Every structure is written in C-alpha cells, then in structure tokens.
Automatic annotation (TrEMBL):
Residues 349-358 have a biased composition (Basic and acidic residues). It comes from Tsukamurella paurometabola (strain ATCC 8368 / DSM 20162 / CCUG 35730 / CIP 100753 / JCM 10117 / KCTC 9821 / NBRC 16120 / NCIMB 702349 / NCTC 13040) (Corynebacterium paurometabolum). This is Tox-REase-7 domain-containing protein. InterPro entries: Tox-REase-7_dom. It holds the Pfam family Tox-REase-7. Residues 464-474 have a biased composition (Pro residues). Residues 350-437 form the Tox-REase-7 domain.
Amino acid sequence: MGSSEHTLGVCGVTDVDPQWYFDAATAVRAVSVNLANGLTDLQNKLNVANSAGNHMSAGHTWATKYDQAASDVFEAISLTSMAADNLGAMIHAAGAERVRVQNTNSPGKPDVDVPALPPGGGLEMSIHPPFRSTGGLNDPPENWDLIEGIVSKKWADCDVDKIRIAGESWMASYRGIQDAQLSLSWTPNDTPDAPAEVAKINTAVANIVTMLEKSTQWSIAIGHACNSVQAKSDSTRQSITGFLSTMKFMLATLNTGSSGPAGQMNETIAKERAKLDTAEWVDVKLEELDKAVQSTTDEKFTMINTAPSSMTTPTENVTTAVGKYLTPLLGREARPQVPVQGNQRNRARGNEGERRAGIDPATGKQRIYPQNPVGKPKYRIPDGRNDVTKQITEVKNVNDIKSKDSKQIIDEANWAAQNGYTMTLVTDHRTVLSQDVQKLVSEGKITVVQMELDENLVAGPVQPTLPDPSPTNPAPVRSPDGIGPMGVPAR
C-alpha cells in the first residue's frame, strides 16, 4: 500500500507515494488540534475551586490526589499534542523529500507540487487545570453548633456539585480523546524495502495512538473517582444532616420542665447523652468518608502518578509513558526528574516556573504578614493570591527545598491558616521536598502539585526525531517467492 512502481536511486529501496506521507501528516496534525482544543474546553469546564473541603482527612486527601492527577493527565495530553505536531512536520518533510526525488528522477515531466504543512495544535508548553480544588464551602448544617467541640472531626464542607460536574467533564473529555483516535484516518505503510523512515513513521504514529489510549484510561479513572467521591460525600452530608435533625427533635422532647435539682440534672444528662451519641455517629460517618476517599484515590489514581516499582501490578504511569512513547518526537525527555546542574539561570527558571504554573505576570504580588514568622522577614510575598477562592500559591522551580525556602513556605502556610485561606505549593517533578514541608503536607496544612516547570535543557534545545522501529513490529520483509505482504511485486 502506498508504493509506486519504480525504485529509488538507492539500490533495493522501493519508492513510496508521497501522498501517503502527506495524508499521514494531515492525520496526526489533526489529532494535535483536537487534543489542544479538547484541553481548552476541559479547562473551561473544570471550576473545582473550594470543592474538596477543609475536613481531614478526606478533603485534604482528595485535594492532594485529584489536583495532582488532573495536572498529570493535562500534561500527558498536552505533550501528546506537541509530539503529534512535531511528528506531522517530520512526516510532511519526508514527503517533500520524496517529491523532490521523484521530480529529479522524472525529467521532462511537470514537477509535482508539495502541499502546505497542515495546521497543528500549536502548544508550546503544557496546559494545566485553571483551579485548585483546595478549600471548601464552610457550610455547617443546621444544629452543627450543638455538637461542635464534642465531635472530633470537621464538617465535610466539600462542594459535591462541583465534584459531580468535574466527573462529567472528565468523562466527556475521554470521549473526545476517543473521537480523536477514531478520526485518525491513517493506514500503516507496509511496502517492502521502503525508505528507512517509513517504518519509523509507522512506529511513531503507533506511539501517538498508544498515548491516546492511555490518556483515555487516565481520564476515565479521574471521572470515575470524581463520581465515587461525590456520591459518598453527598450521602455522608445528608446522613449527618439527618442525625442532627433527629438530635434536635430528641432535645426538644427532653424539655420536660422537670422541677427540682434532681429532675433538672437528669434532663441535662439526657441532653448531653443525646449530643454525645450524635457526635459519635457523626464521627463514624466522617471516618467512613475518610476511608472511602483514600480507597478511591488509591484505586483510581495509582495508574496515573504512582511509580511502577511501587505498584502491586506494575503499569506505565504518566511519566514512564511519555518518556517511552514521546521522547524522540519531543526532542527531549519529558517531565525530567534529574537535578538541574549549575545556578546561572535561577531567576529565569523561577519566572518560567511561575508562567507554567499559571501565575499571571500582570497581576501584582501582595505582601502577607504571618503571626510569629519563623523566618527573618516580617512579611512574605506568595507568588499567587486569589481573594475570591481564598487560595495562595507558591511556586518553587528548584532541585530541592532548602531551609530558607522551607521557612518561607511555613510562614505562608501559617498565614493561610490564620486567615481562612488554603495554600498550594507548586514544584517541578525533580524537586525534592524538605522534611519541614513534608510535615506540612502530612498535617494537611498545604497541598503540593508537581508539574513540568522546566524542560531541563542544559545543553539547549534538541531537534525532534523519528523513533526507531519497534522490535516487536519490524518493517515488512519480502517473502521467499518475491511477493510482498500486500501483493506488491518485489524489485
């Protein structure tokens, strides 16, 4: 398929119709466009700010695991779109070379024109979700004040409607990825003895298809996790609200107006017993919610951001998948986790990290004044502050969090807690957290999201290349009778 009836100037190499190259370039560049547009659409639908809830541990667990998984999958799809763009350009260039060769070998005939390179998605860096899910509604139900101080856990103030909509949006997103895959109107070229790049193109497109399949699986996992957490959170909130209403009714029935110290004491004891029983029931329901959210995130997000070596059944997470299938097409290792050497570009790296983390450079930064700061400065300046969602963001595009950075992060986290804000620390994938920062995470005082803040190109940009053919899917070879697998005569 796609071969011509003559050989190239190279002995034993069968020519391939240039149109096959141009069709393949158009197909993969169209996938890039669909992925980029799909991510932008998903961005517009995912308003998850203040949806996780402030309760420990369910709210903190969900904010930590969901925000990281969402960022990872956004990066995977973005990188696939960029790789498809590069691949389309390389295939188109190979087709142009075939046209040049054929024109050279066809004297006296009109030259064949090369079509324009089809448009691509045009992404230059990964797109990320626009909102963090940290924070909650601060909407304690009626009568919660009667057990406050008795119940050991915080009210589950998650926004179940936002979590539900997020789940629906992720499920719609996976269908969009499937549509992009199904629309890939491209057929591998199995011409025997074709030019060397043909087998590489076959492998490269197969790698893009693999990433589409994996991105579909990851998107489904997030969608299912949202649906599960939303359903459990909603039922928990309703159950607790019902407990509190029942308690209120019981307290009213205990207002017997008993006379005398003994009667009044018995009435007081009965009321306190009702409150204690209700608080115990509420704690049980909230503990069940904690376990359910932990179980759901462990089950659904393991395939996205857990290292394969730590899995019971190893599989490829986002980092290993993009490294395996996209590295040549991107011209670099995506999501590098090795330290950056040298410190000559620290300021530039910091600015680039903020840009990739979604910090608007046009928005002026504001000072905050934590009580009893652990660092020398009396004020801190977080990289991002949103007074509507009551979230602050600190970005650290560094190899590791030093003592000075830790003190800054502690001060900002304390200020956030003192003022009803939540804090997210955004780091690069290579960043190693200090023990002090890890303690803040374990205590639920901050969440951490790792993303590609730096491409770690110490030696400068590297040109994208076609991958070597997969050894499990080698280029077609001639059969002993001299007829190729598609019936193309051997030459």
